[in-house]
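From the shared-data thread, chain only:
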Amino acid sequence: MTQDEGKTWSDVTPPDLTPWSKVTHIEASRSEAGTAYAAVDRHRLEDYRAHLYRTRDFGKTWQSVSSGIPDGSFLNCVREDPVRKGLPLCVY
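Structure, as C-alpha cells:
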C-alpha cells in the first residue's frame, strides 16, 4: 500500500492469509477513503470457502465479509456497488 505515489510502501496483507492464498482482486472504494475489498482464493490449500476481506483504515486491519457467499465459490473479482455505498459485489 502506498499513499505517497509510490515513494514508500507498507505491507498490508490480511494476517489470516497464509502461503498459497491467492489475492485474486483488490477493489478500492470510490466513496470511502481508506476502504478496499480483497477477494482471495485458497483452493490450492483444499479450502473451498469463499474469502472476502474489507479494510476501512488503509489496510491496517482487515475484516472477513464472506458471510452469505456459498462454500465452493471461487472469488475471482470483487467490485463495489456504484449505487449502494459499502456493498461489495462478487463475481465467482
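Strands lie at 22-28, 36-41, 51-55, 63-64, 77-80, 88-91.
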